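#lab-general

N.A. 3:47 PM
ok so I finally got the sequence cleaned up, no stray characters, all 186 residues accounted for. can someone with queue access submit it? mine expired

B.Y. 3:52 PM
send it over

N.A. 3:53 PM
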Amino acid sequence: AVTAYRALLDRGTDPHRTILFGGSAGAGLALAALLEVRRLGLPPPAGAVLLWPYADLTFSGTSIDTNGDVDMLPLRDLAHVWGPAYVGDADPTDPLVSPALADLEGLPPLLIIAGGAECLLSCAEQIAANADAAGIDARLSVYPDKVHGWMLLPRLPATVAAVDEITTWIADHLERPRSDTASSHG
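B.Y. 4:20 PM
back already:
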């Protein structure tokens, strides 16, 4: 992901006109890419949209259990298989493996969208809390009673609302000038 981002920069893409976007594991990858962009000192994008972020491979969130009987993602039952398959010999608490646990200081604005009935709700909440603690502009939108991946159903009223929210957020973050100072949690 960082190689692709660097290639965009090398081609003259304006990072202030760029938004990273990912869903589920792709949201975890987008957040990890932001962390690596920060570490490398590359110019950050204007922001990132994280849909149903799958970004905590320690599986420490309580929603894995509390929403385990309603969510279509059987994380409670498959974490012991999926976790080791992804993590391998790495430390699951490493911020590049579990970016939901990372210090997010200095990252660009984030829009985090999750379903209120999904197993990964706690992961989204953790990212939002870490963003708040780091003083970065982040918004968590939780759509009640929605399970993991619900936006894949295009005619669902909540999907239409979320697409409108994402479209407005992206437009707002691409049109306003980027400040090098931390902005408030919004």
